[in-house]
Amino acid sequence: MLKLKDVLENRQIVIYFLSVALAALCVYFVPGTHVLEQGINPALAFMLFVTFLQVPLGQLQRAFMHGRFVAALLISNFLVIPLFVAVLAQFLPADPHVRLGVLLVLLTPCIDYVVTFSHLGRADARLLLASTPTLLLAQMLLLPLYLSLFLGDEGRQLVQVGPFIEAFVWLVAVPLALAAIVQRWAGKSKAGQKAEEILGLLPVPATALVLAIVVLAILPQLGPASGAAISVVPVYIAFAIVAPLLGWGVSRMFRVEPAAGRAVAFSAGTRNSLVVLPLALSVPGAIPVVPAIIVTQTLVELLSELVYIRYVPRLNHKCEDASQSVLK
Taking a C-beta distance cutoff of 8 angstroms, is the pair 164, 143 a contact? Predict the structure, then answer.
């Protein structure tokens, strides 16, 4: 079983690309795949559950004490990244719906599957996991301010707290609690150990399933607003390339350990698209442009994460000079 787990982890990039490619093909040959949208959150919750099982939850208390990491994480996501988004915003179309969609997604750091991808990318997923409540609270408080700065006073009225809280409960708190229960069970019985061992095989297949469901559910919805969606792809690609480097650079300024720095890089490059999508749907007149803009970022990001998994582990202290030069 250990050998199978090694094979899955060593071949994960190929597995993910095949999952995305096959799902994209299915969209063109199988009608009605958009109905799978209801399966995104359950699949995400399961993926996070099996990922949390790989993280020693008993050590999370230590993560809360890592002040330099938390400082680097917050400064990256709520100061450096918004400044970078302000630069990227200069290249956005004038359409207010397009700008709203881009801002909603790029100004909110991910609180769910970033833990999975950071774990697969050899970052310190425990630190990110322990920081999810802080990230969620900060973006709930700051997003209205950012939107008012970028869009004017009407932007402040666009954010609702409900979807953020719901996402945190079902995508973080519940899977985390279940993982803690299984870990405790594994520590007390052989049956629990066996269950934990079997579930330990599933992070890669579960992540592949999420990728497939997202593509199957979301790709068909891009049609009516495909022109607007395509117009922002260069901005999303630029963000995907530069944002992790900015996060890594900030982490080096705070002299956090390389694994923790990689976690900051993952967080800086990964956005809260699946959480802010309900926000977009609640905005009057937003459909179909704003959801399409957010969904496009999701697709770009999912492909980017596959690249991060391969290359972010190579970030170490030797990259310090390069990352600092990006900040300058």
Answer: no
Q: 């090694």: which residue's tokens?
A: 6
pLDDT average, residue stretch 72-93? 96
Check residue 137 and give its pLDDT: 85
DSSP string, 40-72: HHHHHHHHHHHHHTTS-GGGHHHHHT-HHHHHH
Distance CA 182, CA 192 (A): 7
Q: Which domains does the chain have, with CATH numbers?
A: 37-327 (1.20.1530.20)
Those residues with Cβ within 8 angstroms of residue 35's Cβ, 6 or more apart along the chain or in another chain: 217
Distance, CA of 266 to CA of 263 (rounded, Å): 5
Q: Are 298 and 273 in contact (CB under 8 A)?
A: yes
Read off the pLDDT of residues 12-52 as tens digits, 9 standing for 90 and up: 888 988 998 999 999 989 988 888 988 988 998 999 899 88
- Structure tokens, 287: 């459909």
How is residue 36 annotated by DSSP? G
**Selection from 138, 117, 139 nearest residue 129 by Cα:** 117
Contact of 129 with 52, CB cutoff 8 Å: yes
